[in-house]
Amino acid sequence: MHQTLSRYVTPSAAKTLSDLYNKISQAYARRAGDENLQSNLDGVKKTLAETRRATGIEFLCFRQTKERTGTASSASGPRPKEASRRPK
Fold first, then answer.
1. pLDDT tens, 25-41?
2. Helix (DSSP H) and strand (DSSP E) numbers for the chain
3. How far apart are CA 63 and CA 78, in angstroms?
């Protein structure tokens, strides 16, 4: 796009665009220490996954227990309350 518009650009705008492209290039340039970036990111992912798993285990006792039955009717809708099953 820059090449297409170059004939319409003033010298001061060309200088501004040049500075902008240089700034973008510097931002994406490799720096010392970047070679370990992927391994560090993998370590962070692993730590987050382990922490999530541990937190899930810690709070497992707060989950409601679900009774599983082999009938298809239990999956089709909510179960009646226990109080409604008691004889009067």
1. 888 777 777 778 888 88
2. 4, 0
3. 18
